[in-house]
């Protein structure tokens, strides 16, 4: 009985320490959506509306803007280093995808690749973008290459950064873990979120964990607490179907730059070669010391490669 009492006490202490209730959008905007952040109400094909947090930076005279898509559990902030450089001469649009960042949960409750592709098509139509350079990291990379294959006239060039969408499991790929459909698990996930766990997860996706600052961990932690995002993350992971659309890769017509972190433990560097062999007009740049989010870990080096690629088009 004494051991049981101690266990209950320890559980109660941990619960108090790691209790992290949802945060309202309004409470997060001041810190995470300063200008030039904007919010739009996007009307979806089924009649529903989706709140979308985005940034549209650089010269509006650029007729072929750069559109960048983040990965799972991330946000448009992951591209800030690239945008700072690219927006000096190019129009750059970054988006919080449904389920993440300040956009919040999908209004249709669908987090499949197909749903994200339809969302992107609808958003681009709303923004009156008929041709673009499309880029993405991780999950965003999967959405990008599938879109490029299906809409070749819209994509002038493609940039894949440690892209997902293939059935190439890494050492600790979160999406490879089954998400139990039990209601209690989802309810607990909506109440507790240990910040040390978030800190560790972020360090795992960097090649050099010492590059992770407290501000970066704050961002991942606080945006995950945005109302509805934790339940959306669980749904997204349960709806993943790696490799389902791999047969589309040879249909990609756009010149493609493949960037990869050599220390990526989520999607191994071997996946870069799979993309390279399958996409006709592609080239690969490997960064041996970087991890799964090289655009965030070392924006200066990675955006330099992107600028050279864009100038070569």
Automatic annotation (TrEMBL):
Domain AB hydrolase-1 residue range list: 65-299
Hydrolase found in the keyword field: yes
Matching SUPFAM superfamilies: alpha/beta-Hydrolases
Presence of keyword Hydrolase: yes
Signal peptide boundaries: 1-17
GO terms assigned for molecular function: hydrolase activity
InterPro entries assigned to the protein according to its UniProt record, in alphabetical order: AB_hydrolase_1 (IPR000073), AB_hydrolase_fold (IPR029058)
Keywords: Hydrolase, Signal
Transmembrane stretches, start-end: none
Protein name (Swiss-Prot/TrEMBL): Alpha/beta hydrolase
High-level lineage: Bacteria, Pseudomonadati, Pseudomonadota, Betaproteobacteria, Burkholderiales
